[in-house]
Each structure stands twice: as structure tokens, then as C-alpha cells.
Amino acid sequence: MKTLGKKIRLLRHQKGWSQEDVAKRLDISIPAFSKIETGITDINLSRLEQIANLFDMSVVSLLTFNDAEYEQKYQSELENVNKKLMDRETEVIDLQKKVIELFEELRQSKATA
Fold first, then answer.
1. Based on the structure, what is the number of domains in the chain?
2. From the record, what ranges are coiled-coil (predicted)?
């Protein structure tokens, strides 16, 4: 059941929902939902149907949801985000260099004045 809980957590993150959001929608406590996600609690069929409906899926789709498919789907998006992050890091380094250069110029101009 741990893999089912992992799938549910992955779907919850995909929707941008907190555990509290899902627990409220399922009309259960947050700790009860947390136990579902961690695999501590086995899920009965009615709860499974309720969770599947929450994610607009059939029970079969929920049970067969594949993490690898999810990863493939978002791999290019992740690569784009990483590239943007690297570009931003380069910009920050360039700006830091410029600040240092300006500081040195300012210090030299004060020393000669």
C-alpha cells in the first residue's frame, strides 16, 4: 500500500493541494489522510473511489498511475527550470562582479582625492 500512498501524494502535489486541503475534501482528519499517504492505513474500496473521484480519475487509473510516466511528462519542464536557474545564477555572479568593480573604483577615487 505504500506505493499507492506515494501515488496519492504525487497527485496531491501535482494539484498543488496540501494534506489539509485533501483531508477536508475527503471529510477526514489530517492525520488520517497522512496515514493513507504514508501507507500506514489500508484504504477500503469506498475511500479509494472517493480519492479517485477527487483527482478526476477512475479507481483503475489511480491504481495503475505510473510515477515514470509522470516523471517523463515533467522532465523537459524540469530541465527548462534548471536552465533558467543556471542563467539567473550567472546573472547574479555578473552583478556581483560589477558591484565589486564599482566598489573598487569608488575606493580608488576616494584614495586619490
1. 2
2. 71-98
